[in-house]
Amino acid sequence: MESHDDRIDPVGACVGMKGSRIHGIVRELRNENIDIINYTNNLPLFIQRSLTPAKITTIDIDQDRKRASVYLDPDQVSLAIGKSGSNIKLATKLTGYEIDVYRNNQQEFEIDDVDLDEFSDAIEPWVIEALKGIGCDTARQVLELSAEELVRRTDLEEETVKEVLGILASEFEEEQ
Fold first, then answer.
1. Whose C-alpha in 34, 49, 78, 106 is 20 to 30 A from the C-alpha of 59?
2. Does the CA dihedral 169-171-174-175 come out positive or negative?
3. In this structure, which topology does domain 40-108 adopt according to CATH?
4. What tens digit of pLDDT does each residue of 71-103 get?
5. From-to residues of CATH 3.30.300.20 in the chain
6. Minimal CA–CA distance to 11: which of 25, 23, 1, 22?
7. What is the average pLDDT value for the chain, to the nearest integer?
């Protein structure tokens, strides 16, 4: 969507008041999520909008090959890719550019941390929320605490804590 009139919000016009225009479409698609973004001729901005909610730090575009290299902070990579790669696939179709995602500071990859949300396929969401509730947002923050400390502070069962610690530890073993 694009509007040249500053008084018109193109996304708001598409969605309608309280979502009235979009709800029918969502129902037809069996409650599938729909993302609406503002169109722009500014290609880097269009690619950035297509990967929302991820926050991109740098974009390199090769217009001849129709490829874009997108650089993000490590905690933004999973947002850009999406569940099962859905976000990156949709962004590629929308923009017409093959999009490659890279972590910033890849040479320091071994010391990077991994956001707990990236483990949502292996760790139950309520367990991740319990860990975040005690201030552990990343894998390394969890691994710095003993199993006993985690059990005491989160009220999770010892078996659950040990399973989580094993999953998180294996992530860093694979990277080396």
1. 34
2. negative
3. GMP Synthetase; Chain A, domain 3 (3.30.300)
4. 888 888 888 888 777 888 899 999 999 998 888
5. 40-108
6. 1
7. 85
Count CB neighbours of 80 within 10 A.
21
The yes-or-no verdict on residue 112 having pLDDT over 70 is: no
Specify the amino acid at residue 32. Answer: E
Which pair of structure tokens corresponds to residue 117? 């949300």
CA end-to-end span of the chain, whole Å?
45
CATH class of 113-175: mainly alpha
* Residue bearing the bigger pLDDT, 49 or 171: 49
Residue-wise pLDDT tens digits, 2-44: 677 888 888 888 888 888 888 988 899 998 888 888 888 899 9
Nearest to 93, CA basis, from 46, 147, 152: 46
pLDDT at 171: 78
If you average pLDDT over residues 93-114, what whole number do you get?
Answer: 73
CATH 1.10.150.20 occupies which residues in the chain? Answer: 113-175
Find the angle CA(55)-CA(165)-CA(150) to the nearest 5 degrees. 95
